[in-house]
Amino acid sequence: MELIKRNSHGNQLAVYRSNDSLTYRKVALSPEANHLLVAENQGYAWSSVETFIKKDENGNYTLTIPTFIGKTFPQYNGITGNEEWILKLVQFYKDKWSKDKFCIHGDLCLCNIIFGDNDKVNIVDWEHFHYASRDYFGFDIMNMLFIHLQYEYRYWSYLGFNWIPFVKQQHRDLIFKCHRILGDNGFLRQPFTNSAWYIAKYMSK
Predict the structure, then answer these.
(1) Please, which contacts does 16-22 make with residues 24 or more away whose CB atoms are closer than 8 Å?
(2) Cα–Cα distance, 113 to 155 (Å, whole number)
(3) Fewer CB within 10 Å: N-end or C-end of the chain?
(4) pTM of this prediction?
């Protein structure tokens, strides 16, 4: 097994790739991290992906996940140049999240997406998965856009520039297309404000 990362963002998880590259294994480094793997296992089940979870003699969980083959994206990727892929993901979200029991992924962004053959969408890293009211339809997409905007304009923030007015003009067309695909509900009338509220209320613990 090859160690890929350990304790990323302080999550007390280690990620390994099998020698034949057919599977990945996530290991809880402490019992406190078990809930992340339980949530992730539920997320894969929701998305119809078969995984295997077990507990070791120390009470720590291990989750085995299949490898997905396809187009991947770097972690710190902005929006510019990725508009086509973002819109494909938004359409997939609209189709999938509209008919199944509603849930929140919690970290839906391009680096957690693998586009397979015929642009099949495979989603990974379900550690923040939880069921929620359908009133929050669109949260994962708005959160994704905000994540990629932060990646693209993070240096402006470091320099103290207010990049929000520029972003609204620069990416107006993409944001409008996303909104048109998703439709309208109460949550999406103030998408970024409501997304920030949702994170503070339900995901910051």
Answers:
(1) 17/67, 21/67, 22/66, 22/67
(2) 25
(3) C
(4) 0.89
The β-bridge relationship of strands 13-17 and 23-28 is: antiparallel
The first and second tokens of residue 111, run together, are 């680096």
Beta bridge partners of 66: 23
User: Are 85 and 73 within 8 A, CB to CB?
Assistant: yes
Alpha carbon distance 17, 19 (integer Å) = 7
Per-residue pLDDT tens listing for the chain (205 residues): 899 999 888 889 999 999 998 999 999 999 999 999 999 999 999 999 999 999 998 899 999 999 999 999 998 888 999 999 999 999 999 999 988 799 999 999 999 999 999 889 999 999 999 999 999 999 999 999 988 888 888 766 555 666 666 676 778 888 889 889 998 777 888 877 888 888 888 876 5
Total residues found in the chain within this entry? 205
Cα 136 to Cα 147: distance, rounded to the nearest angstrom:
18
DSSP secondary-structure letter at 102? P
- Hunting for tokens 């849930």 — which residue is that? 103
